[in-house]
Write a structure and sequence with these properties.
It is a single chain. By secondary structure, the chain is α+β, with helices and mostly antiparallel strands. The radius of gyration is 23 Å and the shape is extended. The protein is built from 4 helices and 2 strands, in the order αααβαβ. It folds into 2 domains: 28 residues, no CATH class; 71 residues, no CATH class.
């Protein structure tokens, strides 16, 4: 006795393929792309506004090229225009009280960077020669 009719299985497979972009792209032989599109934006979201910001961006690009070679493609490097403190101050809702988390010796924590007054974080879209993704 067959518990599942053939039509039910076919409908289930068709629904699964049509509702899952990852499975559909894998079935079609296409590489999956990230949810944000896989490409940098069409224009720099935060272009350097001052000569000092431009120097910081140029320095970061120079360091990326020194570490990874001239074959990397770099688009829209920019100083991140906010600090973690600004982020916390601009939150719409107050943060819930924090609860300490026990960490074993094998785990590491991810914390906001602690920057000195003369340190800045730079964001860039970088593509390496051995990887087609950004």
């Amino acid at each position: 006795m067959n518990l599942f009719p053939k039509n039910l299985i076919r409908i289930f497979l068709a629904a699964l393929l049509l509702t899952s972009p990852f499975l559909f792209s894998a079935w079609a032989g296409a590489p999956p792309t990230p949810m944000w599109g896989g490409f940098p934006p069409s224009e720099n979201p935060h272009p350097p506004k001052t000569p000092a910001e431009q120097r910081r961006v140029d320095f970061a690009v120079q360091e990326i090229r020194a570490q990874y070679g001239s074959g990397v493609e770099i688009k829209f490097p920019h100083v991140i225009p906010w600090s973690y403190q600004d982020f916390l101050q601009n939150r719409k809702k107050p943060m819930p009280p924090s609860t300490p988390v026990e960490i074993s010796g094998t785990e590491s924590t991810s914390m906001a960077p602690v920057l000195k007054f003369d340190e800045y974080m730079v964001h860039a879209y970088v593509r390496f020669p051995n990887d087609e993704r950004w």
